[in-house]
Design goal:
The complex is a heterodimer.
Chain A lengths: L2 H16 L8 H4 L11 H39 L2 E4 L2 E4 L2 E4 L5 E7 L3 E7 L8 E7 L29 E5 L5 E3 L2 E10 L6 E6 L4 E4 L6 H9 L28
Antiparallel strand pairs in A: 1-2, 2-3, 4-5, 5-6, 6-11, 7-9, 8-9, 9-10, 10-11
Chain B lengths: L11 H12 L1 H20 L2 H17 L9 H26 L21 H8 L3 H11 L5 H8 L3 H15 L3 H4 L1
The chains are: A alpha+beta, B mainly alpha.
Chain lengths: ~250, ~180
């Protein structure tokens, strides 16, 4: 082998070995981006640079906020529907009241805004006993008003009977219900029909009522022993107004 | 590379971009960076070390670019790379001599430069050459430098280049039979 052949072999070896060296070329100088357009500069470049992270951050914040909202809603309802009975005192979401001897308490219905409670000897969905409609407290205990759709139950007249529906309130209204402004209504259909009772808070966050002609003593006892100090629902502005008074006394 | 080199506070490519209009350093970098790294790798057997050497060479070139004629720029870079590679090899060989391992030095993970398939024998023989001869071989037969360019890059005379080339080829001559 002559020197020329040896040199050629050395050259081939060098080329082959050099090709094994994969160099990380600095992109900014050696390999400009395809297209070669001017890079945006200044505030526009900064806006472009941050737009994607900002959008991602906003999406994350929205997801978190939505998650927190639904979590809080679930927590509120879960708290509002918690029922415990200790001795003869029941606690429904912080509202405490005496339970008549031999009676029981249960939440029969609830949604994001209201909880329906039945206090009765035998608990049924129709609830033959004293009933409560309780507003679920809003954010941080803010007041929530119950739907006035609950009130028509106070119509004492059977279907087809009109003109005899009478609703009375106590002369000394407004009264206090468990230390909060409230009202006591009682009504009947004509002079001889059975009387039912309704106590409510003036902010329409709590209604307690009984069926016509039944459980007057029990509902009175429940209202008399009502304790709202542990209830998360703050007292709200007046939503129900006293319209007329009567010296008449409910007969049952 | 070594702890003795001056601290480099800014990436080379950034400095290059700023000085491009005045010196053409970016053009040199773009056109010769890869080949210089490969040349250094052939001299040192280490890609990472080679990259570091070339980066340092460019940094030095930029710092002194006003003193370098444009036509001599590539030669300046070759010389800088060769000097740094030689220094690195000397340090490495000194370290090897003092390493207590009875089985000899273990190759670094990226020291696989001279192991191209089919050329192991000749590349190993080149790696065993004295540093000067090895550098002459790389400059002459990889970089395509002339004798005078090689002499300039290594800071030696053209006669010394010729002698080193001759001695290197004589050292590789026993491989003739194996390479045939």
């Amino acid at each position: 082998m002559t020197d020329e052949i040896l040199i050629a072999q050395v050259q081939r070896a060098f080329v082959a070995a050099a090709n094994q060296v994969h160099v990380n070329t600095p992109v900014g100088v050696v390999a400009p981006a395809a297209g070669g357009g001017r890079k945006p500069s200044g505030r526009w470049a900064s806006a472009q640079r941050w737009s994607l992270p900002a959008a991602a951050a906003a999406a994350v914040v929205m997801l978190l906020a939505t998650g927190v909202f639904f979590w809080h809603q679930n927590q509120k309802v879960a708290t509002a529907t918690q029922v415990s009975i200790s001795g003869n005192v029941a606690d429904v979401g912080g509202i405490r009241f005496p339970v008549p001897p031999g009676w029981d308490v249960a939440v029969t219905k609830s949604d994001a805004n209201a909880v329906h409670v039945c206090v009765a000897i035998t608990l049924t969905p129709e609830c033959d006993g004293v009933q409560m409609d309780i507003a679920v407290p809003g954010w941080f205990g803010n007041t929530v008003v119950l739907s006035t759709g609950t009130l028509p139950m106070f119509d004492q007249c059977p279907a087809g009977v009109t003109g005899g529906h009478i609703v009375m309130t106590d002369d000394h209204n407004p009264i206090e219900v468990a230390g909060r402004p409230g009202n006591h209504y009682w009504g009947y259909c004509g002079n001889s029909s059975a009387v039912s009772h309704l106590w409510q808070l003036d902010d329409l966050s709590l209604l307690i009522y009984s069926p016509p002609g039944r459980y007057a003593a029990q509902i009175s006892a429940i209202v008399a022993g009502l304790n709202l100090t542990q209830w998360a629902h703050h007292q709200g502005p007046q939503a129900a107004f006293f319209t007329s008074g009567s010296t008449a006394t409910p007969t049952s | 590379m070594s702890s003795a080199r001056p601290p480099q506070t800014r990436p080379t490519e950034m400095v290059l971009a700023e000085t491009e209009p005045a010196t053409g350093a970016a053009k040199l970098h773009r056109e010769h960076y890869v080949s210089l790294v490969r040349m250094a790798a052939l001299m040192t057997d280490s890609r990472s070390l080679a990259e570091e050497i070339v980066q340092d060479a460019f940094a030095e070139f930029i710092a002194r670019s006003s003193q370098v004629q444009p036509v001599a720029a590539l030669g300046y870079l070759r010389k800088s790379v060769a000097n740094r590679a030689r220094s690195a090899l000397r340090r490495r060989r000194t370290a090897r001599n003092y390493r207590p391992s009875p089985r000899g030095p273990a190759a670094a993970a990226d020291e696989t430069v001279l192991r191209a398939a089919g050329f192991d024998l000749i590349l190993r023989a080149v790696a065993d050459l004295p540093i000067r001869q090895r550098q002459v071989m790389v400059l002459r037969y990889y970089s395509g430098a002339s004798i005078s360019e090689t002499a300039a890059a290594l800071g030696i005379s053209t006669a010394a280049v010729t002698t080193s080339t001759h001695r290197a080829l004589r050292a590789l001559a026993p491989l003739k039979d194996d390479l045939r």
